[in-house]
From TrEMBL, chain A:
Belongs to the FGAMS family. ATP binds at residues 49, 88, 489, 526. Mg(2+) 1 binds at residues 90, 527. This is Phosphoribosylformylglycinamidine synthase subunit PurL. The gene is purL.
From TrEMBL, chain B:
It comes from the Bacteria. The active site is at 86 (nucleophile), 206, 208. It comes from Acetobacter orientalis. Its EC number is 6.3.5.3, 3.5.1.2. It is found in: Cytoplasm. This is Phosphoribosylformylglycinamidine synthase subunit PurQ. Part of the phosphoribosylformylglycinamidine synthase complex involved in the purines biosynthetic pathway. Catalyzes the ATP-dependent conversion of formylglycinamide ribonucleotide (FGAR) and glutamine to yield formylglycinamidine ribonucleotide (FGAM) and glutamate. The FGAM synthase complex is composed of three subunits. PurQ produces an ammonia molecule by converting glutamine to glutamate. PurL transfers the ammonia molecule to FGAR to form FGAM in an ATP-dependent manner. The gene is purQ.
Length: 732, 233
């Protein structure tokens, strides 16, 4: 069956009428089906960033240690001793709702390829997950599939999954978020880029064969979900981590030679985006002969091959006299290797199949005339402070309820399905420190890695929420003793064609940008996922909470200086930072009073920097024995987490006068840390000298948390309350 | 001690094992490719963890038919020392060099956590640095670690004292139906077994991942130190 190409088909492919008219103008004729397919995926939101590009440009992306910022497959930063860290976070939200296991698994596979395609050996995976209400039955299926998928892929490829975060909220009921991050290491003079060069050079395809899976995945990811969403399962790809493992080893083996001119993985929009982007960046043309493409099934058309999102495939431009060396390496690893084309000087992508030219598109206009939208954005209305707050329960009862609540409960059920030690370099496993710590083999360096975002803050005040996400990531890295270097962002929002959603997006970027600038913490890579909305039976749509997830990386020059969050024995517990008792949008307000109200805690970036720099220096000079940042749940939850981590107890002093107890203990004021030090008085005096507020909050010892009232909660009792949520939920 | 590590397609803990061996020998072990047909002159061959052939068909089943395995069988017959960890243990059982089989974990999920092992005998090359009954902590990471064997084989393993390690509580209590101490559901809490000549050891947990204080402890180190001493003698 030959489909006739017209505006109606273009709209089916996700192009607007205006965009289709532009396609016809560029081509000077009606495009072929394959050509229309290429335009529609390259101009999809997912590939073109047409709604977001204008705002992404405002983010700071440079620093002396940044080697490659956004625009390459992943960001690259100098970490010292001749090494670079290469990292990126990417979403696989839509596929993970439709088919949770494969959606999450291929999300991990895709981000791994983005990193090793640049020459890095992947050394750590992280993820940021948001699920719907625990009360919604499908949430359990999605958690089960997503966790199995992340584990199934990451465990098999042998990259440790060392960290991440999970939130629950009914706004994610029909639209979970699966954001996966990979960090890799390479010699900084051995970074591989994607710009093709050398007219006549062979274009080589390696990895898995091409099948009919995932056709138009990028377009699917650029639309809202309706009641037929689950019928879109054929657009979800199927992952094979075993092939990926072979591909990693084969590519790294090839990269140790000098055969590669350019390399890029085939991710979203597969062969189309990899060939178009490599040729486009290099300013050359490219000719592909699809008969040479390794195919999984017979009878595939040019359209299907160009749009397939079959996994575990890479495209390379090789030096012509090195192709046999490359072929031998891929044969050793039992992977397909095929020369499928060559570079040309035409400036066009020409696709041939069975002797026919199926596509012939000028590359410059395909890129340069790609639509960019400056969509109307409504300024978010920020709520005022919350009022009429009073604690209905005793302090100990509230604490036990909070540490067992969905957003604060132990994630061990999840972590225990991820291999966090493979590679033998994991210095701090999940839950042992505010950021995961991974040593770089054969060096004294350690990487500190975290993912962070507080969507309920972003919903109430997107600008403050955007700044807070960056600040919390910076703080988590700081709390281990590491120097924060750079971030990757994964911007998950609703439908940008709605002014209120676009307003959230613009404000969140503004907040993020400000925080990145003040904290000297540039954005070096990222991904945007829009249209995270689900149509309700009544025809309305519901958007997710705005979720600009931040993945961040820091470095320790001497990894042995890293500290964890477990309460240290026989220490003074010191509170660093100012406490006003901000309860707006707090977990306490939601879990204890059932209210999601008010403005989120204020973010003062200069204070954040001053407090953090002071704490980091105190960690590095050996004064601080343990450190934990204060985030969701406030001071008392943070103390409880320290007690649970090491089973060392603590006797607490009374709160600062003038603040209501629940506000002091559960307020979520920013820029604060808890530290264990030998001499609290000396530490506080030093802090005052540096303009950093600090006060002794208690003394560690025993195995009980003792509240100022004298009420005692054993570490074991806290742990029982903390551990129950996930196993109970998943056994339902 | 000269050692070699076999790499199959999908092996992923060969680097961890190399670090552990280098720590006790000062020498980098030789990496062997599954298609090799000869072993170099070595004292110890290690089959490391991972997902050889993606665990497709059955864990270890395809690797057991790799070209290198004929040489490893011959090495075993000559009394060579062989350590198989995790996927390496699975390969040893598939090859028939050790009895039994590793089934899917009892809770049907991948498990990645620390466990406590109890040392069942202290007169073997792999265990002599510990006292009998001693316990040590080690990480485990597997989906198919649930050891089983037919009743005759099990009786023989137990009767001849060929159980090297059992999963135990931190205080050394062994209770097979207790999922907190025997997480994968192994019969008789068996975590590692020995060949009759005690020169082949297969175990599911990863002592190679706990040989450095920086990574949380050195509980796994005695196994490797003990091997060096036993082999050098």
């Amino acid at each position: 069956m030959k489909k006739s190409v017209d505006e109606a088909l273009a709209r089916e492919f996700g192009l607007t009428s205006e965009e289709y008219a532009r396609v016809v103008a560029i081509m000077g004729r009606t495009p072929s089906l394959t050509e229309l397919g290429v335009f529609s995926v390259m101009w999809s939101e997912h590939c073109s960033y047409k709604s977001s590009r204008k705002w992404l440009k405002t983010l700071p992306t440079t620093a002396p240690w940044v080697i490659h910022g956004p625009g390459e497959n992943a960001g690259v930063v100098d970490i010292g001793e001749g090494y670079a860290a290469i990292f990126k976070m990417e979403s696989h939200n839509h596929p993970s709702f439709i088919e949770p296991y494969q959606g999450a698994a291929t999300g991990v596979g895709g981000i791994l390829r983005d990193v090793f395609t640049m020459g890095a050996r992947p050394v750590a995976n992280l993820n940021a997950l948001r699920f719907g209400s625990p009360e919604t039955p499908r949430t359990r299926q999605i958690i089960d599939g997503v966790v199995r998928g992340i584990g199934g892929y990451g465990n098999c490829v042998g990259v440790p999954t060392v960290g991440g975060e999970i939130n629950f909220h009914p706004a994610y009921d029909g639209n979970p978020l699966v954001n996966a991050m990979t960090v890799g290491i390479a010699r900084k003079d051995r970074i591989f880029l994607s710009a093709a060069a050398g007219i006549g050079n062979p274009v080589v395809y390696v990895g898995s064969r091409t099948g009919r899976d995932g056709i138009h995945g990028a377009t699917m990811s650029s639309a809202e979900f309706d009641e037929h969403a689950l019928a879109k399962r054929p657009t979800v790809q199927v992952g094979d981590p075993f092939i990926e493992k072979l591909l990693i080893e084969a590519c790294l083996e090839l990269m140790a030679t000098d055969a590669i001119v350019a390399i890029q993985d085939m991710g979203a929009a597969g062969l189309t985006s990899s060939s178009v982007e490599m040729a486009g960046k290099g300013g050359v043309g490219i000719e592909l002969d699809l008969d040479a493409v390794p195919q999984r099934e017979p009878g595939m058309t040019a359209y299907e091959m160009m749009l397939s999102e079959s996994q575990e495939r890479m495209l390379m431009v090789l030096k012509p006299d090195r192709t046999e060396i490359a072929r031998k390496i891929f044969e050793k690893w039992e992977l397909d290797f095929a020369i499928i084309g060559h570079l040309t000087d035409t400036g066009h992508i020409v696709v041939k199949h069975k002797g026919q030219v199926e596509a012939d598109i000028p590359l410059d206009p395909l890129a340069e005339q790609a639509p960019i939208y400056d969509r109307p954005a409504a300024t978010p209305v920020v709520p005022g402070p919350v009022e009429d707050i009073h604690a209905p329960l005793s302090l100990d009862a509230m604490l036990l309820k909070l540490v067992g609540s969905p957003d604060l409960a132990s994630r061990a059920w999840v972590w225990n399905q991820y291999d966090s030690t493979v590679g033998g370099q994991t210095v701090r496993r999940p839950g042992a420190a505010d950021a995961a710590i991974v040593k770089i083999e054969d060096t004294s360096l350690g990487l500190a890695l975290t993912t962070d975002c507080t969507p309920r803050y972003c919903q109430a005040d997107p600008k403050t929420g955007g700044a807070q996400a960056v600040a919390e990531a910076w703080r988590n890295i700081t709390a281990t003793g590491a120097r924060p270097l750079a971030v990757t962002d994964n911007l998950n929002f609703g439908n940008p064609e709605k002014p209120e959603i676009m307003g959230q997006f613009v404000a969140a970027i503004e907040g993020m940008g400000e925080a990145c600038r003040v904290l000297d913490f540039p954005v070096v890579s990222g991904n945007v996922s829009l249209y995270n909305e689900t149509r309700q039976p009544d025809g309305s749509t519901r958007a997710i909470l705005p979720t600009p997830a931040i993945g961040a990386l820091g470095v320790l020059e001497d990894v042995t200086k890293a500290v964890g969050l477990g309460m240290a024995e026989a220490s003074d517990l010191v509170l660093v930072g100012e406490t006003k008792g901000e309860l707006g949008q707090s977990i306490w307000l939601r879990e204890i009073l059932g209210r999601e109200e008010g403005a989120p805690p204020s973010v003062d970036l200069a204070t954040e920097k001053r407090n953090g720099d002071f704490v980091r220096n105190a960690i590095l000079d050996g004064t601080v024995r343990a450190c934990h940042d204060i985030a969701d749940g406030g001071i008392l939850v943070a103390v409880a987490e320290m007690v649970m981590a090491s089973r060392v107890g603590c006797e607490l002093e009374s709160p600062t006068s003038g603040i209501r107890p629940e506000a002091f203990w559960f307020g979520e004021d920013q820029a604060r840390y808890l530290v264990c030090v030998k001499d609290g008085a000396a530490f506080c005096a030093d802090a005052q000298k540096n303009g950093v507020p600090a006060r002794i909050l208690g003394r560690s010892g025993g195995s009980d948390l003792i509240l100022p009232s004298g009420v005692t909660i054993s570490a074991a009792r806290l742990t029982t309350a903390h551990d129950a949520f996930f196993p109970t939920l998943m056994a339902r | 001690m000269k050692s070699a590590i076999v790499v199959f397609p999908g092996t992923n803990r060969e680097r961890d094992m190399a670090i552990a061996l280098k720590r006790v020998t000062g020498k980098t072990p030789t990496m062997l490719w599954h298609r090799d047909t000869d072993l170099p002159d070595v004292d110890l061959v290690v089959l490391p963890g991972g997902f050889s052939y993606g665990d497709y068909l059955r864990c270890g089943a395809m690797a057991a038919h790799s070209p290198i395995m004929a040489a490893i069988r011959a090495f075993a017959q000559k009394g060579g020392h062989i350590l198989g960890v995790c996927n390496g243990f699975q390969i040893l059982t598939e090859t028939g060099l050790l009895p039994g089989a590793l089934l899917r974990n009892a809770n049907l999920r991948f498990l990645s956590q620390d466990c406590t092992l109890r040392v069942e005998r202290s007169d073997t090359p792999f265990t002599h640095k510990w006292e009998k009954g001693a316990t040590f902590r080690t990480p485990l990471a597997h989906g198919d670690g649930n050891f089983t064997a037919d009743s005759q084989t099990l009786a023989r393993l137990e009767g001849e004292g060929l159980v090297a390690f059992r999963y135990a509580s931190p205080t050394g209590q062994v209770q097979a139906d207790d999922t907190s101490s025997n997480p994968n559901g192994s019969v008789n809490s068996i975590a590692g077994i020995l060949s009759e000549n005690t020169r082949i050891c297969g175990m599911m947990p990863h002592p190679e991942d706990l040989v450095d204080p920086l990574m949380g402890g050195v509980d796994g180190l005695p196994l490797f130190e003990g091997l060096v001493e036993a082999i050098v003698q």
